[in-house]
């Protein structure tokens, strides 16, 4: 019994936390006044142009804010702070994007209105991850063989078709015909891929191929 207890304890301590992956976007940033001082208490609101849903946050003492769990799409951003000019902007958030806005509010009642198209950054300043968004025009107009969505991943720089169990050229017993899951991203192995559909895992745990072909 003592040995079992020790093994159980070792299992608990050896567990490695796994970072959750999501297709939802995050908006964060800082709000300052003309003297570069944080505007604590400023109210930041986002309204979805598609659904009308409103999300908000209050700027903290360091002038920072964050709104997480945002569905991709167009949003109307408003920022209000006492004694400072209000800001109205239009944002376009992409899948899994982490957009950062660092804004300086002006004094008075002058209203600022700017349209911002937030393309997903290839090189991010907040973390070391890489990302790419395939535009709607490409999805609709590229001549995909059988309309396989994974073929769109090959159009991204740094991605290419590799080999292995995911391609069926090693063990055909585990190959799923028509699923081009042997994709190498920036030199990584195909079995390191993780597939999500609307934020839900779509990954075969045996060889990390996509589970259901859409």
Please name the defining characteristics of this protein:
2 domains, 214 residues, five-stranded mixed sheet, mainly beta, three-stranded mixed sheet, disordered N terminus, 3 helices
Could you tell me the radius of gyration in angstroms? 23 Å
Note the beta-strand portion: 25-35%
Which sequence of SSEs, written as H and E, runs from N to C? HEEEEEEEEHHEEEE
Main sheet strand line-up: 3-2-5-6-8
Number of helices: 3
The overall strand count is 12
**Can you tell me the CATH class of the largest domain?**
Mainly Beta
Oligomer: single chain
State the major sheet. 5 strands, mixed
Mean pLDDT: 75
Shape: elongated
In CATH terms, what is the architecture of the largest domain? Sandwich
Could you name the ranges where pLDDT drops below 50 across 5 or more consecutive residues?
1-20, 112-123
What count of structural domains? 2
Q: What structural class do helix, strand and pairing data support?
A: mainly beta
Straight-line N-to-C gap: 49 Å
Q: Which percent bin holds the helix content?
A: 10-25%
The CATH topology assignment of the largest domain is: Immunoglobulin-like
- CATH superfamily heading of the largest domain: Carboxypeptidase-like, regulatory domain
């Amino acid at each position: 019994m003592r040995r079992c207890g020790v093994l159980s304890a070792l299992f608990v301590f050896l567990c490695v936390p796994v970072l959750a992956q999501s297709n939802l976007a995050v908006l964060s940033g800082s709000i300052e006044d003309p003297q570069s001082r944080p505007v604590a208490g400023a109210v930041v609101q986002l309204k979805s142009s598609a659904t009308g849903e409103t999300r908000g946050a209050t700027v903290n003492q360091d002038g920072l804010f964050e709104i997480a769990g945002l569905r991709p799409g167009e949003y109307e951003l408003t920022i209000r702070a006492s004694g400072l000019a209000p800001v109205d902007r239009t944002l376009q958030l992409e899948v899994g994007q982490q957009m950062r806005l660092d804004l300086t509010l002006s004094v008075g009642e002058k209203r600022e209105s700017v349209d911002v198209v937030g393309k997903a950054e290839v090189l991010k300043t907040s973390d070391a991850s890489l990302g790419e968004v395939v535009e709607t025009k490409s999805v609709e107009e590229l001549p995909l063989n059988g309309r396989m969505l994974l073929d769109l991943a090959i159009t991204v720089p740094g991605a290419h078709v590799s080999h292995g169990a995911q391609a069926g050229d090693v063990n055909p017993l585990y190959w799923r015909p028509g699923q081009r899951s042997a994709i190498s991203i920036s030199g990584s192995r195909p079995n390191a891929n993780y597939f999500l559909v609307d934020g839900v895992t779509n990954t075969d745990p045996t060889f990390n191929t996509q589970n259901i072909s859409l």
